[in-house]
Amino acid sequence: MLPPELPPLPALTRAEAEFVDVYLEVVDLLGRINPARATHTYGALRAAQALAGRAAALRDALTLMHLHGESEVHAGTLARALRVLDGERRANRVTLPPLSPN
Predict the structure, then answer these.
(1) How many whole angstroms separate alpha carbon 50 and alpha carbon 52?
(2) How far from 76 is each of 7, 67, 81, 83, CA to CA, in Å?
């Protein structure tokens, strides 16, 4: 049986697509660093080291948008793209896990 087909990504400019992709990479790294969810210091350390580079890439993506005259962030469209790319699950790793009953 085939998995359900994902909805299509909304139409994005190249700069918007880069912004979304790099943003999700940053979210993934923050999830690996999250002290409430990390399991090993080495993995968190590696993610923290990579974070600086991905933050610079995020800055560059936003700079490119600005230089191309994209002065507004179309939050609704970008949120749809984030959902298609599993952004909700990925961003959930940045939050605190639910309290476990004691």
Answers:
(1) 6
(2) 15, 22, 9, 11
